[in-house]
Design a protein that fits this description.
Layout (H helix, E strand, L loop, with lengths): L21 H12 L2 H4 L3 H8 L28 H9 L1 H5 L26 H5 L3 H20 L3 H14 L3 H13 L3 H14 L4 H13 L3 H14 L5 H21 L9 H9 L16 H15 L2 H18 L6 H17 L3 H14 L3 H13 L3 H14 L4 H13 L3 H14 L4 H13 L3 H14 L5 H12 L3 H17 L8 H13 L4 H14 L4 H13 L3 H14 L3 H21 L2 H12 L10 E5 L2 E4 L15 H11 L4 E7 L14 E6 L7 H17 L4 E5 L5 H17 L6 H12 L11 H15 L1 H16 L6 E9 L8 E12 L5 E7 L2 E2 L2 E6 L3 E12 L2 E6 L3 E6 H5 L3 H6 L1 E5 L19 E7 L1
Parallel strand pairs: 2-5, 3-4, 3-5
Antiparallel strand pairs: 1-2, 6-11, 6-15, 7-8, 7-9, 7-12, 10-11, 12-13, 14-15
Length: 947
């Protein structure tokens, strides 16, 4: 089946949301991104160098010296203590002894081993001042024992100190000893006593959470870790990572403890599985008039072909009866082999791959058929054993090269592993050999869409509609493509058609899927649509009681309505219905996170702390992740209108509240997200312009020109106008356009434009201290350099414009042809090369406007290796590659670079004459724009062009 766009709603719970509502979630997200405000004053720089007072938990973590540097009332070490820790190594192991009133050691009673020996009578005779001094001295002596790793002796001193005075520090230090001894029960007892005395004693909360985790009391550990995120103002990422880990451990344990029920999945799932196979033919012995075992098998195949929910259950029973009966008759081995094939398929659908493998191997041993090898290939592929799967497909083809089952499912394997060219070839074969396979048509349309050919995809869906006019599958998956591309109105229409077609059929097809898709889309439009979405999802659950997606989607709606108990029940039902272990874990994570949210809200201390955090937000801006780069230019992360995302991204409503309060009638949004803006035009009263391009990639010069001029027109219209730029994280894409606009301002003011200075300015405004460059992706920096050259040199602007006009008027729409690629000093010779252009399509978007959707074509071209000298490798393509002006070369799936042909050729005369573009390894971007490029592949790359 095609990729389900709405499966994205089944993301794992963001752990910080365990405790908070969306408003506090916004505060959390803002706090993560805005810490550079304090960093500008130098405070954060010191913290980066010196480290904080907390660390992530481990069972041995109690041995660290921080456990004995007790926090002040603000729960952080004072500057004085930090200076002391820097003086020498000894002071980093244990704190300096505290001075008592007379600056001399106190002579308290000890036993023959030198351990304190206090009686209540002795303690009662002490004055309050003496008790204070005795307790401090006992603690200091305990610290010395701890430093020497004499944990049992240290416990004796801390216990004596507690006899004299109940102090949270003494409980904390004693719990550290128990932690060092792996006595987690006593760690929990002592930290609990400390927390009773000091609710926000974060060190003890963390230590107790660690012990809870060691004892596998995951719910209690999650509670403490969530409390830590609250006390830390949602700014401790290390604690969040531990919380996420514990939540997953807890969820896995719950899933593992559940009774393993081998049941068939949703009828829609079964129907799509068997529907992709051609009807059985040539089964001479399996017919209606057959007897006993073969009659069972015949009836089972009829039930499967009927494609009904009850029919599949009956077919499962009949298959088992067929296997049992045919196993008793040695003359029926051929029929038994077929029965075993289908028995393996049903066990595979029940997620019982071990039994499925055993049964299919028996079938093949009796009489191999192409379908048997295909079944086994699917079982192997499901276990990620792709090489074994490919071997099975080859064995099937050797038996019958005209079997359509082979090529459709082989195409599926290539599709799911990202090899779209091979997937397309095999789907075409399947379509030719089995013209009635609707899924082959759908997959070919999806491949066209994935390749950035939206219009071609729409044409292929139209072709499929004409071929299968009453098929619910086609409008459903066509709707998913439209929704993914932003055409919400068109998507909803297709989902409605699909649901109506399914309702009229006497068989199961897509089942509840169009209802789920329709509900998901309308729930994203506005809160007013939630009741309508809920009604659709209830209907979906009734239509397909085994659809886990229907239940998990309905549960999310219930959360939005604050019907948490019902949501938890639905999440747990979804877990039971889910087929894969990972889906089960995700569903349970939702349920357990919701339970924890309830527990946190019922805690008066934590609730008060949350309220305190919100009161500290002295302006609406504190709740948002936005930065004023200039008084009229804001860069922000992307807001959201979905409930789940609002736990870790701020809601659009909060942004609008701020803008309407701070800049009423004088703001305009600029969206650069190529994947989806996250809201409708109507959600922002149409105060938005869209200039989308893919994440981690640079914008084309056309996009830069159009976006910066649009921003300039708006900002120049009034001194009160404010442009709000956003992508997803509010960093690379927004930063690139922001820097381009600042360069445009400088150019118009007659200033010299220096790209490095502009990026540094943007970084200082937007990024936290030591957080790296605001525009860090090399390809994005490269396009800013092009933009600077375009602005500063009039002859460049003229020549570039003339070059574009010349190319647009030529018979070929391509700018050039890449003839070959040479890698100098190549260290590997077996990596693939992909060549991409930006594909720009004008179409109706989900924002109900005509916008340019930009995609990377990401195409693999056949080539041959040619050794050039001892160290160089030349990639020669079978045919020259047509490319437009903006080109991406991706190498080995680990690294890539974007460049503009005109500006690279214009760098120097030699380059232009040779029609050769050269880059060094240091110019290449790593995975997703990072510096993680993998092992060095070459020293430099040369691309040779021909017109």
């Amino acid at each position: 089946m095609s990729d389900n766009f709405f499966i994205k709603n089944k993301t794992a719970i963001i752990v910080t949301a365990l405790a908070v509502t969306s408003a506090v979630g916004a505060f959390y997200y803002y706090n993560q991104q805005q810490q550079q405000q304090q960093g500008q004053q130098g405070k954060q720089g010191k913290q980066q160098k010196q480290g904080g007072s907390q660390s992530t938990a481990s069972s041995k973590g109690a041995k660290k010296s921080e456990d004995f540097v007790e926090p002040s009332s603000s729960s952080s070490s004072s500057s004085k203590n930090k200076k002391k820790k820097r003086k020498n190594k000894a002071s980093s192991i244990s704190p300096e002894p505290e001075l008592v009133a007379d600056e001399q050691s106190i002579n308290y009673p000890v036993d023959s081993k030198g351990l304190p020996k206090l009686t209540q009578e002795t303690i009662d005779k002490l004055s309050e001042s003496e008790k204070e001094n005795w307790a401090k001295q006992l603690k200091e002596d305990g610290n010395k024992e701890f430093k020497n790793k004499e944990y049992s002796r240290a416990i004796a001193f801390y216990s004596a100190a507690l006899q004299v005075k109940k102090d949270p520090i003494y409980y904390s230090n004693r719990s550290a000893c128990y932690a060092a001894l792996d006595d987690h029960e006593n760690v929990i007892k002592d930290t609990t006593e400390a927390i009773k005395l000091k609710n926000d004693y974060t060190k003890c909360i963390l230590r107790r959470a660690t012990s809870y985790e060691q004892l596998e009391k995951y719910e209690d550990a999650m509670f403490d870790l969530t409390a830590l995120t609250i006390y830390g103002g949602f700014s401790n990422k290390s604690v969040e990572q531990v919380l996420e880990r514990v939540l997953r451990k807890h969820s896995i344990r719950i899933v593992d403890a559940k009774e393993k029920k081998l049941v068939l999945p949703s009828a829609a799932t079964i129907g799509s599985f068997f529907g992709a196979f051609a009807d059985e033919t040539g089964l001479e012995n399996i017919k209606e008039s057959s007897q006993v075992g073969e009659k069972f098998l015949y009836d089972a195949l009829v039930k499967i072909q009927g494609n009904t929910r009850d029919g599949y259950e009956e077919a499962d029973t009949l298959i088992n009866q067929a296997v049992a009966a045919l196993s008793q008759d040695d003359t029926k081995k051929d029929s038994l082999a077929i029965a075993l094939e289908y028995s393996a398929a049903f066990h595979f659908l029940k997620n019982d791959s071990a039994t499925a493998t055993e049964l299919i191997n028996k079938a093949i041993a009796l009489k191999p058929r192409p379908r048997a090898y295909v079944f086994r290939a699917l079982i192997n592929a499901d276990k990620s054993s792709y090489e074994e799967a490919l071997r099975d497909f080859k064995l099937a083809e050797d038996l019958d090269a005209t079997s359509p089952d082979i090529f459709y499912h082989l195409g599926q394997l290539y599709y799911l592993t990202g090899d779209l060219p091979n997937a397309e070839v095999n789907f075409q074969k399947a379509k030719k050999l089995h013209p009635d396979n609707v899924y082959a048509y759908i997959q070919l349309a999806c491949i066209a869409y994935k390749n950035g050919k939206a219009e071609e995809a729409y044409e292929k869906f139209t072709e499929a509609k004409l071929k299968f006019p009453i098929s619910p599958e086609i409008p459903n998956y066509y709707g998913e493509i439209l929704a993914d591309n932003g055409n919400i109105e068109g998507a909803l229409k297709q989902f409605e058609i699909s649901a109506r077609l399914q309702e009229k059929l006497d068989r199961f097809s897509v089942g509840a899927l169009p209802l789920i898709n329709q509900a998901t889309v309308i729930s994203r439009e506005s809160l007013e649509k939630i009741p309508e979405a809920e009604e659709l999802l209830i209907k979906a659950c009734e239509l397909d009681p085994k659809s886990e997606l229907a239940r998990i989607s309905l549960a999310q709606i219930k959360l939005q309505k604050e019907e948490v108990d019902e949501a938890i029940e639905l999440f747990e039902e979804s877990c039971d219905l889910a087929r894969s272990i990972e889906e089960k874990i995700q569903a349970i994570s939702f349920a357990e996170a919701s339970k924890m949210q309830k527990r946190i809200k019922s805690d008066p201390v934590l609730t008060a702390k949350i309220n305190e955090l919100m009161r500290q937000s002295d302006s609406l801006q504190l709740q948002l992740d936005l930065t004023y780069v200039t008084p009229q230019l804001i860069v922000s992360s992307g807001p959201t209108t979905t409930y789940i995302e609002s736990w870790y991204r701020y809601p659009l409503s909060d942004l609008l509240q701020y803008l309407n309060y701070k800049h009423p009638e004088h703001w305009h949004l600029y969206n650069f997200r190529g994947e989806d803006s996250g809201y409708l035009n109507s959600d922002v009263d149409f105060h938005v312009s869209h200039f989308p391009f893919p994440d981690h990639y640079p914008p084309t010069l056309d996009i830069i020109w159009d976006a910066t001029n649009d921003i300039d027109d708006f900002v120049s219209a009034s001194e009160e106008n404010v442009a709000v730029l956003h992508c997803k994280a509010g960093k690379g894409r927004s930063g690139t356009i922001c820097c381009a606009y600042l360069m445009l301002l400088g150019f118009r003011n007659g200033e010299l434009v220096n790209v490095d200075d502009i990026i540094e300015l943007y970084t200082s405004k937007r990024m936290r201290a030591f957080g790296g460059l605001g525009v860090s992706i090399l390809s994005q920096q490269r396009y800013l350099i092009y933009w600077g050259e375009f602005l500063e040199n009039e002859s460049t602007r003229v020549k570039y414009s003339n070059w574009k006009k010349k190319k647009s008027m030529s018979s070929s729409s391509s700018s050039s042809l890449i003839d070959k690629i040479v890698f100098r000093k190549c260290y590997r010779d077996n990596f693939d090369v992909y060549v991409s252009n930006y594909v720009v399509v004008q179409e109706q978007s989900r924002r109900n406007t005509i916008v340019e959707q930009v995609f990377a074509s990401n195409t693999f071209y056949e080539f041959q290796f040619v050794q050039v000298g001892e160290e160089d490798i030349e990639y020669r393509f079978q045919n020259p590659i047509e490319v437009k002006e903006d080109v991406m070369i991706e190498m080995g799936r680990f690294c890539y670079l974007w460049f503009n042909i005109y500006f690279e050729l214009a760098k120097n005369t030699a380059c232009k004459e040779k029609r050769c573009i050269t880059f060094k390894w240091k110019d290449v971007d790593g995975f997703k724009g990072t510096r993680q490029k993998g092992k060095k592949l070459f020293e430099s790359i040369e691309l040779y062009l021909i017109d």
